[in-house]
Design brief:
mainly alpha; 73% helix; elongated
Length: 182
């Protein structure tokens, strides 16, 4: 029910999801005590396969490229859910900062592990500091953020978003490899 409501452009409350799912509010709150738990479940359902990116590609460049080309179509499919998660994280940050957040803050961060797996082939060819910087840099362009910027501000379509994000990823990998050589 939450997935449907989000797909329609709403970020529902637990009570709204209970109503749509035709279950009691008590039942819904037992499973989802707040919006953090609800959005976590939505993102788990949406991006589960992405989180277990199973590549065994030994070439680091190819593995990073594979990650982007395999997972970006899923980001497109579940873009409303991902935007809802980003919106909730921003809202919770503001409420927490103001001291008015009444539930556990919603935190994103699965890309850290996903990218760590993609970067594993570089472990022996890049220093720890260069690998760490590459990991952090790729985390900026892997996820919903390039969609928000490139679609909303630049007006690009999904294929162009993926192409630009992949170009940036390749440029970052090449920069890290050049730094390791120099």
């Amino acid at each position: 029910a939450a997935m449907e409501l989000i797909q329609q452009g709403d970020i529902p409350s637990v009570a709204e999801v209970a109503r749509r799912a035709k279950v009691s509010r008590a039942t819904a709150y037992r499973y989802f005590p707040g919006s953090s738990a609800l959005i976590t479940a939505v993102i788990d359902a949406s991006l589960g396969p992405v989180r277990t990116f199973p590549s065994t590609e030994a070439d680091g460049r190819k593995r990073v490229e594979e990650l982007f080309t395999v997972t970006f179509p899923r980001f497109v499919k579940y873009e409303p859910q991902m935007r809802a998660a980003a919106q909730l994280a921003l809202e919770h940050w503001a409420k927490q900062r103001a001291g008015i957040l009444k539930e556990k803050a919603y935190r994103r961060g699965h890309r850290v592990g996903i990218l760590a797996h993609a970067l594993e082939p570089f472990r022996n060819s890049l220093s720890a500091s260069v690998l760490d910087r590459l990991h952090k840099a790729l985390s900026v362009i892997y996820g919903i953020e390039p969609h928000v910027i490139l679609k909303d501000i630049w007006g690009l379509d999904e294929q162009e978003v993926e192409a630009v994000a992949l170009w940036m990823a390749n440029a970052l990998v090449e920069a890290a490899l050049r730094e390791a050589e120099g």
